[in-house]
Design brief:
single chain; 2 domains; alpha/beta
């Protein structure tokens, strides 16, 4: 009986913690305000686009990036080839480009384990901009993307996280990914709004080069294959005087494609989960562990009902019902302020699949081997 009561108390405590976490996201979304500025920053802008084996999408990307409603003399675009094994570099090199676009090839000996992060660092070291924007070579942008992202910038801003959205592809797997990914973006936005910037996506971020240099850039992360986005954001938020913002402007949304299959999805989420091991904020790591335990509890409690006591049906039902309601409310809020065309129809199926996938991805991110762009990589 004592063990049963202790377990029941643990499950209730984990639910309380997770509910407070979701509530802080909701409040953070309410605090976010769209930028009212129509000013183009006086600072020169460098857009860094690392790429590896993107022959299918690289031309669509460059056509999109050079079609910006932004003065050409105010920005440059730097593509950095991360040792592609296809003809991506040749395709870009032969494409007719404006003068503000250049393509660099990354030296093989340049921080070999950092992969994408080394490509970004190499691009920054060869850039002229006071503002750095990073995005991915498989993305598509509206013509007002650059203007929209930079309208959030002011003298107190060190980092801007922008929204990323999956394009509408046919099939339930794609729709599930689009909803789940939107949830991650909305979560990141809410945490920034609540003053606790935690997650963002490197496909759409802006940062002040001075802030990047102030926190020594990726210097303490160059032995890691990831972390070019949220680890940098967290350092700028913690170790500089600058603010972190999220862009709510619809024109700042970057679009990309969902994973083609379950295997690609699994390896992507495993890489993302592995970054949590290297957060510098101990309280944040503890918070993430407690959230993971909440999800693990959702999987364990039905078995406890079957094999130990029917009492666990109450904590399980309360936990599941609270999760469904609170997360649906957050998605509705995110749909209202950001993704107006987001379909919530796959919500229940997505919720059903989310629990095992987070448990598997979380543990695999810690212990499993990681893969990216035909590479086996270390964390």
């Amino acid at each position: 009986m004592m063990t049963e009561n202790i377990l029941l108390g643990i499950f209730v405590a984990l639910l309380g913690h997770y509910s407070l976490f979701l509530f802080s996201i909701f409040l953070g979304l309410k605090k976010l305000k769209p930028s009212q500025s129509n000013q183009i920053p006086k600072e020169f802008v460098s857009i860094i686009i690392p790429f590896r084996n993107e022959s299918e999408k690289i031309i669509s990307n460059i056509k999109s990036i050079i079609g910006q409603n932004f003065p050409e003399e105010n920005y440059e675009v730097i593509y950095v080839d991360d040792n592609s094994t296809d003809n991506s570099f040749q395709m870009l090199d032969e494409f007719t480009k404006p003068q503000n676009v250049k393509v660099l090839s990354l030296p093989k000996e340049f921080s070999p384990n950092a992969h994408k992060k080394r490509a970004i660092r190499y691009g920054i070291e060869n850039s002229n901009g006071e503002l750095i924007i990073t995005t991915d070579a498989d993305c598509i942008y509206s013509s007002n993307w650059l203007t929209s992202m930079l309208s959030n910038y002011d003298e107190e801003t060190g980092f801007i996280s922008g929204p990323v959205e999956f394009v509408d592809d046919d099939g339930i797997f794609s729709k599930l990914q689009k909803l789940e990914f939107a949830g991650l973006v909305i979560t990141g936005a809410g945490l920034i709004g609540s003053g606790k910037p935690t997650i963002c996506n490197a496909a759409n971020i802006v940062y002040r080069k001075k802030a990047y240099e102030e926190v020594n850039g990726f210097y303490d992360q160059m032995d890691l294959s990831s972390g070019d986005d949220e680890l940098l954001m967290q350092k700028i938020a913690k170790d500089t005087k600058y603010n972190v913002k999220f862009s709510l402007i619809s024109g700042s949304i970057v679009k990309t494609h969902a994973s083609k299959n379950i295997n690609a999805f699994y390896h992507q989420r495993k890489r993302w989960a592995s970054k949590g091991l290297f957060y510098k904020n101990i309280s944040l790591i503890i918070k993430l562990i407690l959230i993971y335990l909440f999800y693990l509890g959702l999987l364990i409690q039905p078995f406890l009902v079957l094999f130990i006591s029917s009492s666990f049906i109450y904590t399980f039902a309360l936990s599941l019902f609270s999760k469904l309601i609170l997360e649906y409310v957050i998605l509705l809020k995110g749909k209202k302020v950001l993704f107006s065309k987001l379909s919530l129809k796959p919500f229940l199926l997505a919720e059903f699949l989310q629990v095992p996938y987070i448990i598997i991805a979380g543990i695999s991110g810690i212990f499993g081997n990681l893969q990216w762009k035909e590479r086996k990589i270390r964390r």
